[in-house]
Write a structure and sequence with these properties.
nine-stranded mixed sheet; 24 helices; five-stranded mixed sheet; single chain
């Protein structure tokens, strides 16, 4: 799109070539500066490889090439430095060589591959701006009548329009020389150096201020950045190593794009740009987007026949707030585009100088993505008696994080997504290209659909995320309560040690009998199904007896941490409607207004001894509450999560299968039962004939004592938070806390670096990361850390893959699944989803929603509030909390 700028009246005139310094244009100055930063890399090379079939007159082609170089001073210009600043020096014409590389001696199968390698090497060879020359050419012969012509110019002396001029002139002069005629092209009235001088003189004062005022307003406020979640973690200082992913839009889709554009009064450029912005919006949940686009910059007739760097770059900022339809978005893009194109005279480099954006070596200023829509070059290269076609060649460089090129050819719309290879991997970019085409099809099929509802994934990809990666179904017994499973185990191994705490221990028979006696005592007090019984005890044998006794009475236990302040304990007792509280006399609860009846287990020994030790009748069913655990309240007030027996039983079976827990394994309990962290060891231990080591609080926080304990009593499974483990390990130095067994990390994000160090010091120790909100019953995802020191650019361990009968969905704000690598909120479904929050129906309805993806009848999803993304293998990675007012890569929280 080319427009004439208002107010341009002064003619561009030739200036004297008296040997004095000639100024660089604004664009040349910026390219020179970027070249210095990049230390002469190939980012700003403009390569073209033309395959020529037919009888080529090589001498005529070389003469034509030299004639073009003679006509355009810019092709003979270099940029040496004087006093730290570049100057433009035009050298007298010297013949340009056209070296011939003959590959006809190679086997036929190798010639094209060898020629392509030569083309890519030539395209990626840097220029020396100070020494020149800044145009190169070579000819590769692959057959007697087939050649690959390679032409490379530096961007400081050329641009896309110039490339068209170069080939038009080359073909015209070549045709004349083949016929024995002189060049038919007239002498140029002005040269690029004249334009550069004129631009410096013309663009200043009021004329500049009028245009700058628009851009100051357009780019006011904080400038958004392109933080794509598919970017490789740990990418540091910006490099220019690049690659590209080509694609073609099918003919039917091209026709529909053109039809939509005509109906809506927009250009194909605007329609494609709207689709690109819609795609980025869906990837980042960002409503403020800036994408750059190049314009020819030839707003005067005198500049049209010149080779040189005229191209300018415009920053197109679009507001996607309010969830517009695609039709509305196209109109927003239209307005932004027209406004920008009518103020295109301000060079981008002058705009950067004016705005002074925060500079970050990892990013280009103002925008990090570019969209370029261009006419096909291949139609213009028509040499007489020859068949010519453009061959793909890569410089191996990328100027921006992403550049979307779309080329309108006689075949339709061809494109390529060029990307920084240090920032993105090819699989992610290939997927992004597929999503671009899917979103275009969806937008054209339903332009009145909100952008948030447009399809982004193909049906096979969507099915993989929703169905294939959620095929975790297992058939476990669903009709047993958790204490019934324990009773069956106690009957199988009555003499095996069930619990150890300090010098005390209980066999399964003893533990079952004591729990039965407590259960019958509680039943006499009216405890039954759905009764909530609080238990506030330090880690001890009585703690586990109390938990099992409450369950056997048919009630649900409500664990309290004795270390909690009195007001939290009182709040929990009130909100859970607790009629009975189990504790020890030595624990000072300091509660005065609770209606709960307090039973001191350390004083009830005689009364309990009078009760029968036989299993009491089963009053509860698998659908009854097993426990109510209150959340920490870190994201609001504490909430009591009600978990049923069938959900605990499902977790028990799933974690035993995933961790490979063998009957009779040993476990250590080092965490408070008031959080569900301990349930990873309590029930898998007591329901599989294992030995549970109940570690007193003092020992569990003393690294030396706990490590010595594990030396005397090696355990097979330890569940612990990373911060707790790190604190313990810091006290032991290089001495590992555990030398063998399985270490299960949970409750917090785990870092790769220190986990790797841990594995180095204890290579016999297996490490598993375990994730799950209380609302979905202890845990739903696991990731087993590979052996050896893990090598990963990611900071934290992945959360992993779903446990049996768990279903994971990574969704956007419209409850649509997001692609691999894109950040969304984690929703958990399956048999582990708990009943909800006790005495809080409104909050339960808000956080537990109907499952829209084909779960069992009545199935629900829990909205975790955790921001995550899928990795390539289907595992899930934690990114952050949605309710934290921060910006994480690829997901802006407003």
């Amino acid at each position: 799109m080319k427009t004439m700028s208002r107010g341009q009246t002064s003619a561009i005139e030739r200036i004297a070539r008296d040997g004095g310094d000639l100024p660089l244009s604004f664009s040349q100055q910026r390219i020179w500066f970027l070249d210095q930063l990049g230390q002469g890399n190939a980012s700003y090379n403009i390569p073209t490889a033309v395959r020529i079939a037919g009888r080529l007159d090589v001498p005529a082609l070389e003469r034509a090439l030299n004639e073009v170089a003679k006509r355009h001073e810019v092709l003979r210009t270099t940029f040496p430095v004087a006093d730290g600043l570049p100057r433009q020096v035009i050298s007298p014409f010297r013949p340009v060589a056209l070296p011939l590389i003959d590959l006809t001696g190679l086997p036929a199968a190798e010639r094209r591959k060898h020629a392509a390698r030569i083309a890519n090497e030539e395209a990626g060879l840097p220029f020396d701006l100070a020494a020149g020359p800044l145009m190169r050419a070579a000819l590769v012969r692959t057959k007697a009548e087939e050649h690959l012509a390679l032409f490379t110019m530096h961007h400081i002396v050329s641009d896309g329009w110039s490339r068209g001029i170069f080939f038009n002139e080359l073909v015209t002069i070549y045709d004349a020389f083949c016929k024995g005629k002189a060049s038919p092209l007239p002498e140029l009235a002005i040269q690029y150096a004249d334009f550069a001088h004129w631009q410096r003189e013309w663009l200043q004062g009021d004329r500049l201020d009028r245009q700058l005022s628009f851009w100051r307003e357009q780019l006011s406020g904080p400038l958004p950045t392109l933080d794509l979640p598919i970017a490789r973690p740990g990418a540091g200082t910006q490099t220019h190593k690049g690659s590209s992913e080509p694609f073609s839009l099918p003919a039917d889709l091209t026709a529909r794009i053109k039809s939509f554009s005509r109906r809506e009064g927009v250009t194909v450029f605007m329609t494609l740009l709207a689709a690109f912005k819609a795609l980025l919006h869906r990837y980042m949940s960002q409503t403020d987007l800036i994408i750059g686009t190049p314009v020819a910059g030839r707003t005067r007739l005198e500049t049209e026949p010149l080779i040189g760097l005229f191209i300018n770059t415009l920053a197109l900022r679009t507001d996607l707030s309010g969830n517009p339809t695609f039709r509305q978005l196209a109109q927003r893009v239209k307005k932004v585009t027209w406004d920008a194109f009518s103020r295109q005279d301000v060079p981008f480099e002058r705009l950067v100088e004016e705005l002074q954006p925060d500079r970050d070596l990892r990013r280009t200023p103002i925008f990090q993505a570019l969209f370029a829509f261009q006419s096909g070059l291949s139609e213009r290269i028509q040499m007489p008696g020859l068949t010519c076609s453009i061959e793909a060649s890569e410089t191996g460089a990328a100027k921006f994080d992403l550049t979307l090129y779309v080329d309108e050819t006689d075949r339709g719309l061809d494109g390529a997504l060029v990307y920084r290879a240090d920032l993105f991997d090819r699989a992610s970019i290939r997927r992004m290209v597929e999503h671009f085409m899917v979103i275009i099809r969806g937008a054209l099929a339903n332009p009145d659909s909100p952008v948030s509802a447009l399809p982004i994934m193909s049906e096979p990809e969507r099915r993989r995320l929703l169905v294939e990666w959620n095929q975790s179904r297992r058939e476990y017994p669903r009709d047993l309560c958790i204490h019934q499973i324990f009773e069956e185990q106690a009957a199988r191994t009555p003499g095996a040690t069930a619990l150890m705490c300090d010098a005390e221990s209980l066999t399964y028979e003893q533990l079952n009998r004591k729990a039965n006696q407590l259960a019958r005592h509680l039943m006499r007090l009216g405890v039954g199904p759905e009764s909530r019984v609080a238990i506030c005890l330090d880690r001890s044998l009585d703690l586990l007896i109390g938990v099992l006794g409450i369950l056997k009475a048919g009630g649900a236990y409500v664990p309290l941490d004795p270390m909690n302040p009195a007001d939290r304990i009182a709040l929990i007792l009130d909100r859970a409607s607790v009629p009975v509280l189990l504790t020890h006399r030595a624990i000072d609860l300091n509660i005065t207004d609770s209606a709960a009846r307090i039973i001191y287990l350390d004083e009830e020994g005689e009364a309990l001894a009078l009760e029968s030790g036989d299993d009491p009748p089963h009053a509860a069913s698998a659908e009854c509450l097993a426990y109510v655990i209150f959340t920490s309240g870190s994201t609001g007030e504490p909430k009591g999560v009600g978990v049923e027996h069938r959900q605990v039983s499902n977790y028990l079976n799933g974690v035993v299968e995933r961790l490979g827990i063998a009957p009779g394994s040993s476990f250590a309990l080092v965490s408070a039962v008031a959080a569900d962290l301990g349930n990873t060891v309590i029930f898998p231990s007591l329901c599989t004939g294992g030995r549970l080591h109940v570690i007193p609080r003092e020992t569990s926080f003393n690294g030396e004592e706990l490590g010595d304990y594990f030396e005397r009593h090696p355990v097979d499974y330890l569940k612990i938070t990373p911060s707790h483990l790190l604190a313990l390990q810091s006290l032991r130095g290089a001495e590992p806390l555990m030398r063998q067994g399985t270490l299960v990390l949970g409750g917090e994000a785990s870092r790769w670096d220190w986990v790797g160090s841990l594995i180095e010091r204890a290579p016999g120790c297996r490490v598993v990361n375990h994730y799950g909100p209380t609302e979905t019953t202890v845990g739903v995802l696991t990731f087993e850390v590979p052996g050896g020191r893990p090598a990963s650019a990611r900071e934290t361990l992945p959360l992993g893959l779903p446990l049996p009968n768990s279903r994971m969905f990574v969704l956007d704000d419209s409850l649509e699944p997001v692609p691999v690598g894109v950040v969304g909120e984690l929703y958990v479904g399956g048999l582990g989803v708990s009943r909800g929050y006790v005495n809080a129906p409104d909050l339960t309805a808000e956080r537990f929603i109907p499952d829209p993806f084909g779960g069992e009848p009545g199935a629900r999803l829990y909205k975790t509030g955790d921001l995550v993304r899928y990795l390539e293998d289907g595992s899930i990675e934690f990114v952050g909390r949605k309710d934290h007012q921060v910006k994480v890569r690829g997901f802006r929280i407003e």
